[in-house]
Automatic annotation (TrEMBL):
Cellular component aspect of the GO annotation: efflux pump complex
Species assigned in the record: Pedobacter cryoconitis
Domain CzcB-like barrel-sandwich hybrid: 68-210
Protein name: RND family efflux transporter MFP subunit
MF (Gene Ontology): efflux transmembrane transporter activity
Length: 365
């Protein structure tokens, strides 16, 4: 026991001397340099909470409010065409007539069947009524005969309804031989001529029609600005074929879904074009005035450090340095919008540098 007690303090002394001897002049010099940097006083500021309007300029496109490509519903030959490229048409206006004799013959056959089944239905109905009246006198008509008449009447009624539906379908096919305009607009493409065979495997469109008295100004809003677009967002835009003129509109709708390819949402602004100022299809330069839906934090641009390790600001907590990773938003003048673990009452170093390391003590100016 005494042997162990005596050795313990010697061993402790030896370890102390060994670790002390491991310190090198270079380590001490580096530590002194760090202490010198850490003791330099710095100026701190508080982030600003603000919700300002800010401008954004993006490309856009004027598209027809409605646009449709018209294909034939049935197979047939183009008998006559009443519209050409550039023709202004009204809703329901006849554009072309197709010719399909087999459809007409099928309709005539179905109509003939309908007339026959209608006569059978009327005869069964009259026979049933007469037997029913006669059955009101006891013993005049056997019950089974009345049941047969009722069954015949119901069967003929169902058959007539079925053939009538067939006739209606055939009549509808005849209506498909007439090609009409689905809305007011202008014919932008006419792809066939009289005599052409269209329909079925021949998927050549007959016409393309666009509604140009009302247009959609479409703009792709980048992801970082998507939440700033609200129902009252206003825009002004210019087009190259009207130099020196600016036009205005208000947001009509937006997709609220980020397109995977562009990482943007699509916003649309309805434009009245009663006077045909625009042809539709023009590219536009769009200027928006946006505003975040909530207040965000802003710091001077000099407070943000861009380093290989990432983007950060330097926060002072209990006179000690703490690096905080951030992402940046929009910039307005000398202020930069930031997002991260930062609050409005935090102390932020006015001029951040990479030399300010985590955990180091610091003096405030």
């Amino acid at each position: 026991m005494k042997f162990k007690t005596c050795i313990l303090p010697i061993f402790t002394l030896t370890c102390t001397l060994t670790f002390t001897g491991c310190s090198s002049p270079q380590t001490e010099e580096k530590q002194q340099q760090n202490n010198a940097i850490q003791k330099e006083p710095v100026q701190v500021i508080h982030p600003i909470s603000d919700q300002p309007f800010y401008p954004l300029s993006l490309p856009g496109e004027l598209k027809p409010y409605e646009e449709v490509v018209i294909y034939p519903k049935v197979k047939g030959f183009v008998k006559k065409i009443f519209a050409d490229r550039g023709s202004k048409v009204k809703k329901g206006q006849l554009l072309a007539i197709l010719e399909a004799p087999e459809i007409s013959q099928h309709y005539l056959s179905a109509k003939s069947d309908e007339n026959k089944f209608h006569e059978d239905y009327l005869y069964s109905y009259q026979a049933y009524r007469r037997l029913k009246q006669a059955a009101s006198r006891n013993g005049a008509v056997a019950a089974i005969e009345l049941d047969k008449a009722r069954s015949k009447f119901r069967s003929d009624s169902a058959a007539y309804a079925a053939v009538k539906a067939t006739t209606g379908a055939s009549a509808q096919l005849q209506q498909y031989l007439k090609i009409t305009a689905p809305f007011d607009g202008i014919v932008i493409h006419k792809n066939v001529s009289a005599g052409a065979l269209v329909g079925d495997n021949n998927q050549t469109p007959l016409f393309s029609i666009a509604q140009t008295n009302r247009l959609r100004l479409t703009v792709a809003i980048p992801e970082k600005h998507a939440q700033s677009v609200g129902k009252n967002t206003k825009v002004s835009f210019t087009v190259s074929d009207h130099p020196g003129q600016s036009f205005q509109s208000v947001l009509s709708r937006k997709s609220d879904f980020l397109q995977q390819g562009t990482r943007a949402i699509t916003a649309e602004f309805d434009i009245l074009n009663d006077k045909n100022i625009w042809s539709g299809g023009e590219y536009a330069q769009v200027n928006l005035i946006l505003k975040r839906p909530y207040a965000t934090l802003w710091v001077p641009t000099g407070s943000i450090v861009q380093a290989q390790s990432g983007t950060f600001i330097v926060k002072v907590v209990s006179n000690m340095i703490k690096r905080v990773s951030i992402t940046t938003g929009i910039r307005k003048g000398e202020l930069q919008e930031i997002f991260g673990a930062v609050e409005e009452n935090d102390q932020i170093v006015l001029k951040g540098t990479e030399e300010l390391t985590d955990g180091a003590k610091i003096m405030l100016r």
